[in-house]
# Entry
Amino acid sequence: MVALWVIFGVTLLLLVWQVGQTAVSVRGKSAPLPLETAITTEQQTAQALALADARVQELTNSQRTEVFGVRRMGQQFTAASAACATAVCFQVEIYSFDKNATVTAVIDTSAGVVRDVLYQPNMQPGINQRLANRALQLALNDPGVIEELGFRPAQADMAPVAAGLRGSSCDQGHLCAGPTFRVGNRILWAVVDLTTETIAGLRWTTVSGDGRTVPYAPEGGFCPAPGSANRDGWALSYETTGTDGLRVYNVTYQGRTVLTSASLPEWHVDYNGQYLYPGFFDVTGCGGSGGGYPIPPFGETEVRDLLEGSTVVGFEVVQDFRMEMWGAACNYRYGQHYQFFADGRFRVVVGAYGRGCGDDPALQQPVYRPVVRLDIAVDGDANDNFAVWDGDQWRVQTNETYRTPYESPGFGPHQLNAANAGWWVMDAGGAGYYIEPGVGLFNDGGLGDNPFLYITLHKPEEGDTDL
# Structure
């Protein structure tokens, strides 16, 4: 294998802490529908360049397509768009309803050129304001919603976020979003299929009473300053992305490359009680005029001492993300910690602090799974391999594969050796890193991981840009 992405879908139990204008349905089959919302002159330029590009047109012609977002890029770009390291670049996200695919164009507005075009099948960017308004309009006027609530709602309690519902059309490659309506301690999710413009399903969840809230209203456009750290043998850069949370990149230890990049593209929120059917999806980040409703950063990124008792053993890079009324039901808080030890170890730590939309202690608790993407580079990107402990020995994987936390012939459950390691990333010489899951050994309140693990070859369209 040449370069590896390692993707973790880690199971975390939720930690409970005590509209505009009417939209017109889009049915066009020619050029993608551009954004209707106000965007800057530079964003308009980026959008126009993307829609005029022959590669974009080839991938979108004769389909129902729409621009979902035009976001300013940081240091997350493909090799073909390396000029974006110093140029002003934008990421234009175009969704095909017909193909359930995203076309992402990287636009260098400084030079007035399209640097790269990526085709991303089965990927859905965050919805734009027009579609959020449409989802809300469909839900507010749906007879089923009115019947369930017992009245005609005038507004939703939470804006439509990406959603899925087991057994619905959302499982069939349709774009879905779920506005919510609260009645007492019950919340109705109206899952809207935006591909067909119908209601895919309705689901009630129950919440306990609101706790103490912490109001938070970030200034418009706030995004933590990017930065770097150089200490304890480590050197790295960090940035808060549009929708991939806190990202660290170009990570080295004692001069040797360890990580090309690590980020958190998505949270899967399971109210269905089934591993394979996450109910709703959250993202964290600054947004940057992209689509969707990312949960915003709370304060600046911090670099803190990492302690064992009173002894400093390294440092961590930390970012908090909160909704504006954290503490109330359906107002979320997430945290990311990248920990780097002076002895060369590193650890990726994430936490979900609630409050969810279904956290009644008398009912099954929702499960939050962060999707963590690690581009591990052992002394450089080339010639890395991945091995799995099979209970007796290390077995090098020769194809893209996955591992499950439950019994699945050939794929699970996980096996750990005497040192608690289940996986090994190494270069051709055998040097590398063992990967050790949390099983309550870190004394930080963690209850243990039940990770899904996906091992893939590096592909630019699978994470070189903001997902």
